[in-house]
Amino acid sequence: MTSSAIFKDKIHAVFVAEIVFYSLAFLVTLASFARRGKMTSIKLYLLLLISLKLAGTSLSLRAAVQIVNSGDGTMSNGTTVLFIVGGVLTSVASAPLIRCTRVLLPSLPKKQHPDQPLLERLLSNLPRLTLIAAIATSAAGYGQLSGSTSTAEKGIKIVQASSILFLAGYLMLLAAGLLAFKTSHSDWPPIKLYGVAIAFPFFILRFIYIIISAFSLTGNLLEYHKFSVLNGDWRPYLGMFVVMDFCIVIIYLAMAYIAPPSDSREPSSEKRKYFNRYV
C-alpha cells in the first residue's frame, strides 16, 4: 500500500485549522499587550510558541500536500527537508509552552546556600537545563532522519530521548514551583496555580502522543503508523495533540489577561524568613 493511499486528506484540514487558530491567537496575544503590566513575560512566550507552531504547521502541510500530489507516494529531497524542519519547529514549540507554565509558578531562589536542601538546589536549575537538552536533542535527532539508514536510526533514538526530556523538564518545573510555593511563596496568587492545574491534564495527554509518535518512527519516514504526523491516522493527532495544544493556549491566554503580574521587588515575610534560614 502506498503512502498516498494511506495518507488521509482530512489531516490537511487539521493543519489548516491549526494555522487559523494560531493566527487568531497571535492577534489576540498582540492585542493583550494593550493591558500594560499584565503578565508580559507569558505573552512573549506565547508569541514565540505561536510563531513556531505557525511555521512548523505550514511546512508540515506543504510536505503532506507534496506527498499526495506526487502520485507515487514518494518523498523528494525537498519534501523531506520540509517535513524535518516542520518537525523540529513543532517539537521545539514545546519549550515556550512549558516556559509559560514557569511564569505562572513561583520560583526557587537562584542564589544557593551550603545548607540549602539538595532537592531545592537541584530543582532550581535542573528544569531549565533539561529543556535546553530537549531542544538540542530534538533538533539534532530530526536533522539526522534524512541521512543513511544507520544515521536515521541514531536520529530516531535521539528524537525519542528528546520527547522524554520535554516531559521530564515539565514535571521537574512543576515540582520546583510546588516546592517554592510550600517554602516561600504561600501568598502566590491562587489563580495562577489554578491555571497550571487546569492545563496539567492537557499537557500530559499531548506528551503521551509525542512520546508514542517518537517511538513509532522508523528509518522509512513514509512507513505507516497510527501516530505518524506525516501519514498516520489524523484522529489521534487531532484529539491527543492539536486539541490539547489549543486548550493550553486558551488557558494561558486567559491567564495573560486576568492573572496579576508577579511582584518580585518586595519579598514577602515568608520569603524573607526562608532566606534567613541560610544567612
UniProtKB/TrEMBL annotation:
Q: Give the highest taxon in the source lineage.
A: Eukaryota
Spans traversing the lipid bilayer: 12-33, 45-68, 80-105, 158-181, 193-217, 237-259
Record key words, sorted: Membrane, Transmembrane, Transmembrane helix
Residue ranges occupied by any DUF7702 domain in the UniProt entry: 11-256
One Pfam family this sequence matches: DUF7702
PANTHER family annotated for this entry?
Answer: INTEGRAL MEMBRANE PROTEIN, UNPLACED GENOMIC SCAFFOLD UM_SCAF_CONTIG_1.265, WHOLE GENOME SHOTGUN SEQUENCE
What is the name of the protein in this document? LAMI_0B05886g1_1
**Species name:** Lachancea mirantina
